[in-house]
Amino acid sequence: MQTLVGLDPSVLRPAFSRFPSGVAAISAEVQDVPRGLVASSFTVGVSLEPPLVLFAVQKSSETWPVLRQASRLGISVLSQNHGQVCRQIASKSGDRFAGINFHKSEGGAILIPGSALWMECEIVSESEAGDHLVVVLEVKSVEDYPETEPLVFHGSTFRRLVS
């Protein structure tokens, strides 16, 4: 057991990485350009009536101010085969969608084929939470692919579910 001394990010980051989470790509076309970011903070089931989900994004994100202009956001819960796709969409430079096959909805939401779950959402609210913004989204449509295993992020690396 490691005793946590201090609360600086170099201590907190590895401690927080002990909690496994799924990985979601949040994407849309904005001004005719596909834009996206990746969130391991994505949470479903915030509310069923109305259907709400949420994620947290760093205030320093250069992508979120552009992406939030979209009328609809696509949420793709990435599959265990999307490790490279995840890294590419999360990158800080280059064309994040170069070579990535994607589906664009009529509302401009971008969805990644082969994902475990697709949702098309609208922004309900944003709230400050420390160095992040918590973004609440209302789900407008959903496509579930139960045969597809999700990508899991744990211990700062990608993992697979094992039965």
Which helices and strands occur, and which strands form pairs?
Blueprint: H1 9-16, E1 21-22, E2 24-30, E3 33-39, E4 43-48, E5 51-58, H2 64-67, E6 73-77, H3 83-90, E7 103-104, E8 110-111, E9 117-129, E10 132-144, E11 152-154, E12 157-159
Antiparallel strand pairs: 1-11, 2-3, 2-6, 4-5, 5-10, 6-9, 7-8, 9-10, 11-12
Kindly describe this structure.
- The strands form three sheets. Strands 3-2-6-9-10-5-4 form a seven-stranded antiparallel sheet. Strands 1-11-12 form a three-stranded antiparallel sheet, with no helix packed on it. A two-stranded antiparallel ribbon has the order 7-8.
- A hairpin with a 2-residue loop joins β2 and β3 (33-39).
- The protein has helices at residues 9-16, 64-67, 83-90, and strands spanning 21-22, 24-30, 33-39, 43-48, 51-58, 73-77, 103-104, 110-111, 117-129, 132-144, 152-154, 157-159.
- The longest helix has 8 residues, at 9-16.
- It starts with 8 loop residues before the first helix and ends with a strand.
- It is built from three helices and twelve strands, in the order αβββββαβαββββββ.
- The chain has one domain: Pnp Oxidase, Chain A.
- By secondary structure, it is mainly β.
